[in-house]
Write a structure and sequence with these properties.
Number of domains: 2
Strand order of the largest sheet: 11-10-9-8-7-6-12-13-14-15
Order of helices and strands: EEEEHHEHHEHEHEHEHHEHEHEEEEHHHH
Number of helices: 15
Structural class: alpha/beta
CATH superfamily of the largest domain: Aldolase class I
Distance between the termini: 21 Å
CATH topology of the largest domain: TIM Barrel
Shape: globular
Number of strands: 15
Strand content: 15-25%
């Protein structure tokens, strides 16, 4: 038996008398004595210890066989995937005027029609085959709650349909939070609403600059009031988009949430991400010029680690460092635009070259247009970080190059930050592993 190829070992504790092992393939952690680590390398580890490490995915029969299995991971996951996951863009309209709006010039008073909604139900009916156990829809916009009637009618059609086939139906909302009042939550939870994702871009003075109402008025207080009024009914995840110039101020948001009684028991998850640039040539609704082009930008190493620690330190949940399973590679995950056109990633909606079909004609082959398996090359195959990256984000590549035929390699970022992020889990989540 051998140590897994996908292991990072870090010294831990005073005098480095312990080693922290982290599996980039399984996202498992274990703290062991240095002499135990030496025994692993020498092949003299007692069988019970070997078995424990094997259960954690840290010891394998053969490293080369393990590397081949990782290259086939998405094929294996697709073969036994029990779910159908759809992001449904109900409209491209919004009651906000965000400084960095990701949808830029594609936005407008564009709404999904009843006819397209019926086609969506038919599309799901056809693809929810006998091996499926659940349907999860992420209602998206624009602002999806501008189309609450369609959310209700689609859910009323799908819930009995899926449950009649022995499956479960749930949906989430990606919303700016301004319209998510208690009466809305009470209407939608019986229909399958499970989680609401709301963006807060820092404390009030920062958030209101970046995410005002179309009138120019601040939106922060409205959102906070709605979160307080609904957090007992649904899981609310709080996100936020930071820049190099303001990320340190997001700590004040965390303190504000605590002071206002929005404590970790009342909030599902908290996660902050950098604002991304828009691709060259895309229209902006504002003259915003900021945003990052790569996770490897040096300032992000400090920013992401600091913000993650501040989240964990206060007891809020945030995602673990774990393998990335991009929806592009998931055969049963699609984005349905308001007009019925299908995509594999919400970042590409409206870009004709990345359409993969439509609700009427079905899905066409997208192997080349989305560069499926671009990470199946010699360099990636030999990288210990492959399960945490799988070639990186295609949209990030598109931002930089206007094409997605290159890798968005995250090795520099992971070299610099993974040890810190993993040790945060040991410190603040002692049962991790």
């Amino acid at each position: 038996m051998q140590l897994s190829y996908y292991i990072k070992a870090y010294p831990y504790g005073e005098g480095s008398r312990h080693q922290l092992l982290y599996s980039t393939k399984k996202a498992s952690l274990i703290l062991i004595r240095e002499e135990t680590y030496q025994r692993i390398e020498e092949g003299t580890l007692p069988p019970p210890d070997e078995q424990q490490l094997r259960r954690l995915g840290m010891m394998v029969d053969d490293q080369e066989e393990e590397k081949r299995a990782v290259l086939d991971l998405f094929d294996e996951l697709n073969a036994r995937n029990p779910g159908l996951n759809l992001t449904v863009v109900l409209n491209l309209d919004c009651n906000f005027s965000c400084l960095y709006c990701y949808e830029g010039g594609t936005k407008g008073r564009l709404y999904m029609s009843e006819e397209t909604a019926h086609l969506l139900v038919d599309f799901i009916k056809e693809r929810f085959t006998r091996n499926k156990r659940y349907l999860l829809i992420d209602f998206y916009g624009g602002e999806p709650l501008l189309t609450i009637g369609l959310i209700k009618s689609i859910s009323k059609a799908l819930k009995p349909l899926i449950e009649g086939k022995g499956g479960s139906y749930h949906f989430t909302l990606v919303t700016n939070g301004s319209l998510f009042k208690r009466e809305v939550a009470e209407e939608l939870t019986p229909l399958g609403l499970e989680t609401v994702k709301i963006t807060l871009d820092g404390p009030a003075e920062v958030h209101d600059r970046y995410r005002p109402f179309r009138s120019g008025a601040g939106s922060f207080d409205t959102i906070i009031r709605n979160i307080k009024d609904t957090c007992d009914l649904v899981k609310i995840g709080i996100g936020g988009n930071f820049e190099r110039t303001n990320y340190k101020r997001f700590v004040h948001l965390l303190d504000y949430l605590m002071d206002e009684g929005l404590t970790p028991e009342k909030i599902g998850t908290v996660k902050f991400d950098p604002v991304m640039k828009r691709p060259q040539g895309d229209m902006f609704l504002t003259d915003y010029k900021g945003g990052c082009m790569s996770i490897n930008e040096p300032w992000l190493i400090e920013a992401s680690a600091m913000l993650r620690e501040e989240i964990l330190k206060r007891g809020y949940k945030t995602p673990r460092i774990a393998p990335i399973l991009c929806m592009v590679e998931n055969r049963d995950a699609f984005v349905v635009n308001f007009d019925g056109v299908l995509y594999k990633c919400p970042a590409f909606i409206g870009k004709e070259d990345f359409a993969v079909g439509d609700l009427q004609t079905g899905v066409r082959d997208y192997t080349d247009s989305y560069q499926l398996g671009i990470w199946k090359n010699e360099e990636c195959a030999e990288c210990v970080y492959l399960p945490l990256c799988f070639g990186g984000c295609r949209y990030m590549t598109y931002i930089r190059d206007g094409e997605i035929d290159k890798l968005d390699c995250r090795k520099a970022y992971l070299d610099a930050s993974l040890e810190t992020l993993v040790k945060q889990d040991i410190t603040y989540r002692p049962r991790a592993g």
